[in-house]
Prior knowledge:
Layout: E1 2-4, E2 20-21, E3 27-31, E4 39-46, E5 51-54, E6 60-73, E7 76-81, E8 84-88, E9 94-98, E10 104-111, H1 113-123, E11 130-132, E12 136-138, H2 140-154, H3 158-176, E13 177-179, H4 188-202, H5 210-217, H6 221-232, H7 236-253, H8 258-265, H9 270-281, H10 285-293
Parallel strand pairs: 1-7
Antiparallel strand pairs: 2-3, 3-4, 4-10, 5-9, 6-7, 6-8, 6-9, 6-10, 8-12, 11-13
Helix pairs in contact: 1-3, 2-3, 4-6, 5-6, 7-8, 7-9, 7-10, 8-9
Amino acid sequence: xxxxxxxxxxxxxxxxxxxxxxxxxxxxxxxxxxxxxxxxxxxxxxxxxxxxxxxxxxxxxxxxxxxxxxxxxxxxxxxxxxxxxxxxxxxxxxxxxxxxxxxxxxxxxxxxxxxxxxxxxxxxxxxxxxxxxxxxxxxxxxxxxxxxxxxxxxxxxxxxxxxxxxxxxxxxxxxxxxxxxxxxxxxxxxxxxxxxxxxxxxxxxxxxxxxxxxxxxxxxxxxxxxxxxxxxxxxxxxxxxxxxxxxxxxxxxxxxxxxxxxxxxxxxxxxxxxxxxxxxxxxxxxxxxxxxxx
Length: 294
């Protein structure tokens, strides 16, 4: 286990404009600033909330500003306290929860693959698909840069926000970056997992059972489970829930109502969407949609 321990409480910044009220002591704002295309922002404090295993299309970079965050990865668990940074590459399956009774507060950047590739091409000698070679680091200066991106965006200062974002990502890549391995499936199990994922994506609203899916792919249920988890870090049903939430995000961003979105991605009803969406994204779908239509 790699641990970055906190050495004193830092202010968590408080629930700024547009934040979503949650359980006692918790707040969150997940939003997008027009001056920073290709970037989502989350600033939050969580105490009881925990994120189930999920993944992101793009990158995750968070600076812990108080408390302790505990992140579960395929190869173990890392912890970061005040001054710690967590870095996760695209499609990196992970969980997140409080690592201390007081919970944790953080400022998170979700830059798209295109944004990171552009910055890497301009500022580093890295070739191919770039990513982070480390998951956790203690780097107070970079942590402050990440929070300053949020502050500039919240103040509507596009010049400062864009400049600080590029500086922060460039420094992260220079200090902790490296080329990512190719994702081309090579083994028979990886190819089977990729075919299973394609089936689930195509039939998201009405997926087959594990047994029927295995039959379609010419394998056994347990072999499919092992192959899928090895390829994507989670079993098919967990991956499907995450994929549905990702699809729901795209529909909500396009203006769809939560009730319509729930049916379109295969959830039984809006309460099911609300529950899974809030657990994975950190804010309810209604709040997520409002922040993108403002």
